[in-house]
Amino acid sequence: MIERTLVVLKPDAVKRGLVGRIISRLEDAGLKIVGMNMRQADDQLVLDHYDDLEGRIGKEAFAAVCRYVQSGPVVAIALEGDGAVAVVRKLVGATAPAEAAPGTIRGDLCHQGWRSPGDIRAIFNLIHASGTPGEAAEELALWFDEADLHAYAAADEEFAF
Question: Of 19, 41, 117, 131, which residue is 20 to 30 A from 53 by alpha carbon distance?
Fold first, then answer.
């Protein structure tokens, strides 16, 4: 089933010059970019995006996540493809870089020794990927206006679908 999902390349991906490499991996997997923007995430966007996180990880860790995501520009990407949410999650790998398998974006590109303020190990992990189709829809609405999402036929779609 064709679905859309959100990927956010976090400040460490941008600052390390990994944006192109990560996008290539997503496109190589058959995903189509239907929206993309680079921005500095403001307080409200970060709070809305991570609205359920504080209760799961605690106030100090939540503050570290917010500082990290706002420590530089991010690249938000709307992707479309067959089973896009699951495909992206598989490509990205486990949230904690030390647990991400080789061959995944986090497994191959994260620096295992990097720590965030407060030693929150899992957050310097390059990339956010929506976890479910419902989450993807909510997150896409936060990061993109509908007019910024595009529908078009990719050159290989007549063969792939």
Answer: 19
63-97, pLDDT tens digit by residue? 888 888 999 999 999 999 999 999 999 999 998 88
Question: Residue 25 is encoded by which pair of tokens?
Answer: 């991996």
Residue 126 is part of a domain; what is its CATH number? 3.30.70.141
128 is catalytic: yes
Structural element, H or E, at residue 45: helix 43-49
Provide the sign of the torsion angle of the four alpha carbons 24, 29, 35, 40, taken in this order: negative
Residue 72 DSSP SS3: coil
Given this model, what pLDDT does residue 161 score?
A: 58
pTM over the 0.85 mark = yes
Q: Tokens 């993807």 sit at which residue?
A: 136
> What is the length of the chain?
161
- 3 state DSSP class of 8: strand
The residues near 160 (Cβ < 8 Å, ≥ 6 apart) are 30, 82
